[in-house]
Each structure stands twice: as structure tokens, then as C-alpha cells.
Amino acid sequence: MGLIPNVVNLVGPVSTKCVLDAGCGTGWLFEELDPAEAWQCDLAPPPTRRPGVKSTREDITNMSYPSDRFDVVVSSLVLMWVSDLATSLREFHRVTKPGGRLVVALVHPYFAHAGYVVDDGFVINRDVSREQELSDYLISGIVGPLTYYHRRPETYYNEALRAGWQLTQFLDWFVDMEHYEQFAADRRTTTRRTGWVPTFTFFVGEKYPDKVGASGSRHAG
Ligand SMILES: C[S@@+](CC[C@H](N)C(=O)[O-])C[C@H]1O[C@@H](n2cnc3c(N)ncnc32)[C@H](O)[C@@H]1O
């Protein structure tokens, strides 16, 4: 609902660009975008939903791509599942061309798995002030068990800055409940949502030609 249009919008026009979907999951991104070159990777072999998409199996903390390879790196709902946030953001910076961009989507750190929806709001029943590992976590009750790393939003931003990213856009997305009620009725979903707190948060980083950042030289070239 709010994820796909926001990621597509933050990525911007791509007809002449080389785009990497890092941690692509089901590979939905390239059903929405048609870049000059489409690359996707994940820990498991990614599914190809469209001809021409190049897929590799990668750990985002240690990718096999050469440096300065992509115009845009997209990381959608991935960084919450990665223990080494700093290395992931440095790897994204390394493989991005100078002048390129990073688009990150996260479930909102202060509200994801922090509590529950009630009729007149949202009750937080977990301490969101400190970093925590929620182990044996099942996505939608099905995928897993995985470890979810709860971090404060500032941790993501500060690590991105330390990795050399110039942060240029931030967006919190809230469910529009009128629209959601129709959407939920059509899909017979039982998930309870609220428009009182943000569901997703997004940020964009740019790699300026004059910013060296903290990218390693392991794959220089
Ligand atoms: C919640 S899914 C999100 C998938 C997709 N990007 C989306 O927006 O729907 C998280 C994905 O991150 C991948 N992932 C987690 N840790 C990873 C790592 N270290 N390297 C590569 N992919 C990773 C998982 O395998 C999973 O496919």
C-alpha cells in the first residue's frame, strides 16, 4: 500500500540508470520500475519476475559487485534484519556511483512490533528507547524465524552519515484509514492498522563525487 509508491517515487526516473534492489525478497521492484539495467540480490537465490533482470546471491554486508557500479541502490525493509548496519551502509556506498543515490525503506522503528492498535489509538508496550534483538521473529507469522534488530531512527541516520551518505530526504508514511478500510475489505485482511502512527519511514542518501566516505577498497575498480 504505502511501500511501493513511495519507493518508486523516491527512486525517481530510471530509464537511463542502473539500479540494484539489495535484499529484493519477492523481487517486486522491477515489476514497478524499468531501468536501463536491473540488478537484484538476496541471501537466497532471488526469483526473476521479468526477463532481463540480473540476479545474484549476496550478503549485503559483503557484496561481490565492483565499486561505483550502480546509479541507484534500493534497500526496502531489509536493514531491520541485518546485524551489521554500519557495514551494510558502507557496502551500499561503495557500489554506488559518485552522484548516485540510496533509497531506504524501514518499518517505522518506533512503532513496528512495539505495541498494538486499539480503537482510539496505539498502545506501546515495549521499550523503544534502547536497541534490542527480537529473536525467533516470524514475518506475517510465516517467514522465519529471523532476528529483528530494533534500533532508534537516529541510529540509521547516523550510520548512513558515517558511511559517507549525504542524507537528502526523509518521509514518514501513515495509513489513510478511509482508503485502508476499503483495501482491507477487498482483501479480507484481519491485520489491524491505525493512521495515528507511521507505518513506514523512508530516507534517501546521495553519494557526492567529492565525498570519499568510508567505503572500503576491497573491490576497487
Ligand atoms: C522483509 S524482506 C523485504 C523484501 C523486499 N525488499 C520488499 O521490500 O518486500 C527482507 C529481505 O532481506 C533479505 N536479507 C536479510 N538480510 C540480508 C543480507 N544480509 N543480505 C542480503 N539480503 C538480506 C531477506 O532474505 C529478505 O528477502
UniProtKB/TrEMBL annotation:
Gene3D superfamilies per the UniProt record, alphabetical: Vaccinia Virus protein VP39 (3.40.50.150)
Lineage of the species this protein comes from: Bacteria, Bacillati, Actinomycetota, Actinomycetes, Micromonosporales
Domain called Methyltransferase type: residue spans: 20-104
Top EC category: transferase
The enzyme's E.C. designation: 2.1.1.-
Record-level GO BP terms: methylation
Protein known as: Class I SAM-dependent methyltransferase
Highest taxon of source: Bacteria
Ranges annotated as spanning the membrane: none
SUPFAM superfamilies listed in its UniProt record: S-adenosyl-L-methionine-dependent methyltransferases
UniProt organism field: Micromonospora vulcania
